[in-house]
Amino acid sequence: MKKLSLYTLLLVSALTALTSCTEDFNKDVAAPQSWKQEDGKTISFSAVAASATTIDLATVTTDSVAICSFTAPPVSEGQTIKGFDIVLDGTVKLNVNAHGQVAKADLQSAVTKLYGKRPAPRTMKSVVNAYMSTNGQVFRASSDVINIIVTPVAPLIESAYYLIGDMNGWDGAKLIKFNHSDKDVYEDSYFSVIVKIPANSYWKIIPQSNVDAGNVWADGVLGTITNGDTSMSGNLTRNNPQAGKIATDPGYVKITLNMMEYTYSIEYIGNMALQLYVPGAHQGWNPATAPFVYCQNYDMKYDGYVNFTADNQGFKFTSEQNWDGTNYGDGGNGTLSTAGGDLKVATAGFYRLTADLSSTPLKYTATKTVWGLIGDATTGGWDSSTPMTLNPETGEWTVTTTLTGGKSFKFRANDAWDINLGGNANNLTYGGDNVSVTSDGTYKVTLKLGNPTAYKFTMVKQ
């Protein structure tokens, strides 16, 4: 409990008022007074949290929720109580009524502002303030710090979701994973996938927890409310989920889930090329013999490597191995345009090319790469790369080097981690797992980037 002199009560800056009371108590708050305190004139004010356990807003059915309790300071003749507020974590201020209640919606907004939307208990160090008016000036009495524990309202959102249905023969071993950003799922609740389907394809959604449990049909499966629902957007349910139906011709569709709202939307794309060809000055501008970039995840994002043999060489992306399809040129500032001129690289070299036809505007990148090995299995450890040598005809990088058994390495470009490959020898992935070395020895390591459908490597002991 704090006992504060009426004449030495401190000022506090007004923050957002979040209940039905919207008066700014600080507008006329007097500055601290410096004359001698009068004997015997003190104010007692204390507060306690309304609950020693978590206030779970998902279970609150009223518009307001008790957050604390307190007794108003006593007043003398000529004094009035102007109101109360509570400051959460020294940052967010909510107006609170005389019963220690705040608006549920405003408490939800305050907690998510401080900690995000994930429904986890959040402990906030808080101070309750009482405002009193004396002779036209407003003074404040503050309680000691109390802990308010609140869990915000949010639905269950799992770390990943998978598509199952006619597109994969309802086979739980061939689930199609939805793509997601690297953000927290409660900050980015959207999951999407582009997939090729047969005509009139039925579907459901499998959550990550079912995959982890080894039973894709356990409780938690998501579907439509009505079996065979052909709506291209609607609500998802876990309660007796039914199979939705995409009543279209065969082709590619984009399915997007918003798990904060438990909704889905389906966009019919139709036919989509999995390859974009890269004709240009590096190979005589002949689409029929051009290298290509590949759409590995059916997401209209293409990736591949092309060796440009001279400076300032031009190139384009084409959807066909001729000039009769859709051709993409320079739209300026890293964008593609079907009406654009030639794309160009400034200097000769082995480039990673990407094209994103799912974005607006369409985008591309061209990054010159020089590859090497790095890891505790190499002579340079994790501090420096062991350089590899390019075979420009095959797109293969090789090195013969000493490797240490029981340790590991990865492939990375340009002595940096922006572009690195690891994982399975027959299907390397960006940011994949470290590659293990079984025994000490000298090895010839070959990184094969010439075929973008699957990046591979070999490691042969010499």
Q: What does it look like?
A:
The protein is mainly β and 462 residues long. It has four domains: 2-151, Immunoglobulin-like; 161-270, Immunoglobulin-like (Sandwich), CATH 2.60.40.3620; 275-368, Sandwich (Immunoglobulin-like), CATH 2.60.40.3620; 371-461, Sandwich (Immunoglobulin-like), CATH 2.60.40.3620. The strands form twelve sheets. Strands 4, 7, 8, 10, 11 and 12 form a six-stranded mixed beta sheet that branches. Strands 31, 32, 35, 36, 37 and 38 form a six-stranded antiparallel beta sheet that branches. A hairpin with a 6-residue loop joins strand 29 (349-356) and strand 30. The longest helix is centred in the N-terminal third of the chain and has 12 residues, at 104-115. It is elongated, with a radius of gyration of 32 Å. Residues 1-19 form the signal peptide. Keywords: Signal. Residues 160-267 form the SusF first starch specific CBM domain.
Straight-line distance between termini: 78 Å
CATH topology of the largest domain: Immunoglobulin-like
Question: Architecture of the largest domain, CATH level 2?
Answer: Sandwich
Instruction: Please tell me what the overall shape is.
Output: elongated
Helix content: under 10%
- Portion of residues in beta strands equals 35-45%
Mean pLDDT: 89
Number of DSSP helical runs: 2
How many domains is the backbone divided into? 4
Structural class: mainly beta
CATH top level of the largest domain? Mainly Beta
Q: What kind of sheet is the major sheet? A: 6 strands, mixed
Total beta strands:
40
Domain Outer membrane protein SusF N-terminal: 21-152
Keywords: Signal
Protein name: Outer membrane protein SusF
Signal peptide: 1-19
